[in-house]
Amino acid sequence: MNSIIKPEYETLIFQFRGFKVMIDADLAVLYGVPTKALKQQVKRNMERFPEDFMFELTKIEKMELVTNCDRLLLLKHSSISPIVFTEQGVAMLSSVLRSEKAIKINIEIMRAFARYRSLLRENEELKKEILKLDSKLNQAFRFLLDKIDALHQKATEPRKPIGYKTEKNK
After folding, report:
1. 62: which of 45, 80, 162, 169 is 20 to 30 A away, CA to CA?
2. Measured between alpha carbons, how far is residue 102 from residues 30, 78, 96, 145 in Å?
């Protein structure tokens, strides 16, 4: 399968305000349009993009993004905050950007979001398995420590001397 968006492009997905999102600049590059043109098309069709589809990052969120992602250093000095799109917002972009390339890119982005969700689910399952294993190990260690403590208690009790009795140990 010749994929336009390679699996490493899943790194274009960030998390803000509890949503997995993609930044307008990254989407513009993928669609082969200037960021300004993408934003213009979105602004002309604002009724298609409610807050759970698209939102503008705050200055703090923008700085966090720039800090965590070196390739976005140019955003640091930009006076315009980036717009981010949730998975539904990216899907809605295909109705705004009607080129054949936009449709193909959208399909691949949806696949990337699906792979991202799958990875998160796998990590959750792995986390549950690790917690179960950790619990079993803790029980085994507690059992062993109790046995060692019991042996230690026995060892500290004074022993009755054996052998010939002398004046000291009568």
Report:
1. 45
2. 8, 26, 9, 63
Is the separation of the CB atoms in 115 and 10 below 8 Å? yes
Q: Distance between CA 102 and CA 118 in Å, rounded?
A: 24
Report d(CA 149, CA 73) in Å as an integer.
58
**Do residues 44 and 30 lie in contact, with contact meaning Cβ atoms separated by under 8 Å?**
no
Domain spans in the chain, listed from the N-terminal domain onward: 7-124
Phi, psi of 57 (to 5 degrees): -75, 145
- What is the C-alpha to C-alpha distance for residues 103 and 92, in angstroms, rounded to an integer? 11
With tokens 């990875």, the residue in question is 119
Q: Residues 20, 21, 23, CA angle at the centre, nearest 5°?
A: 160
Which of these, 21, 18, 29, 12, lies nearest to 83 by C-alpha position?
21
Strands (DSSP E) contained in the chain are 14-16, 19-23, 54-56, 83-86
- Give the list of residues 6+ apart from residue 84 with CB closer than 8 angstroms, or none: 14, 16, 19, 21, 22, 23, 24, 54, 55, 56, 57
